[in-house]
Amino acid sequence: MLEPGNNDQLPPIPGKRYFTIGEVSDLCGVKPHVLRYWEQEFPQLKPVKRRGNRRYYQRQDVLIIRQIRSLLYEQGFTIGGARQRLTGEEAREDVNQSQQIVKQIRGELEEILKILRR
Predict the structure, then answer these.
(1) Could you give the CA distance from residue 105 to residue 118 in angstroms, rounded to a whole number?
(2) Measured between alpha carbons, how far is 22 from 40 in angstroms, rounded to an integer?
(3) pLDDT digits 0-9 by tens, 43-97
(4) CATH number at residue 44
(5) Residue 1 binned pLDDT confidence (cut-offs 50, 70, 90)
(6) Which residues make Cβ contacts (< 8 Å) with residue 23, sequence separation at least 6?
(7) CB within 8 A of 46, min separation 6: which ones?
(8) Most buried one in 8, 9, 22, 47, CB count within 10 A?
(9) What is the 3-state secondary structure (H, E, C) of 9-64?
(10) pTM greater than the 0.85 cutoff
(11) Is 74 left (phi over 0), alpha (psi -120 to 50) or beta?
């Protein structure tokens, strides 16, 4: 996600379930209007909206915002480049999860086969 060197500059994320846009702004060093703009540009960023269209971000959203901030501000990516980078990382994570599930199922099936052969 975020490089450890960049993580030192930002405050730690508290152990809360939901964060307001103001709290996320402080945690990520990004102004609220920028966060609202990024919601339009990055499909991964979907805060929960409640009464009065108020946004509530979860911990995963804060981590994604910090990653977007790093890609744009420190690594020099464009919005489009950062979007592609995030999409590529999600695809790799999905493939890794799928491979792990297949290995687990295969192992369980082999155990069942051993039991049936007895």
Answers:
(1) 20
(2) 18
(3) 989 999 988 889 999 999 999 999 999 999 999 999 999 988 888 766 566 566 6
(4) 1.10.1660.10
(5) very low
(6) 57
(7) 39, 61
(8) 47
(9) CCCCCCCCCCECHHHHHHHHCCCHHHHHHHHHHCCCCCCEEEHHHEEEECHHHHHH
(10) no
(11) alpha
Q: Which two tokens stand for residue 53?
A: 């269209």
Q: How far is it, in rounded angstroms, from Cα 52 to Cα 63?
A: 25
> Residue 48 sits in which domain range?
4-117
Domain count, the chain: 1
Q: State both tokens at 4.
A: 């450890």
The residue length of the chain stands at 118
Is residue 39 within 8 A of residue 47, CB to CB? The reply is yes
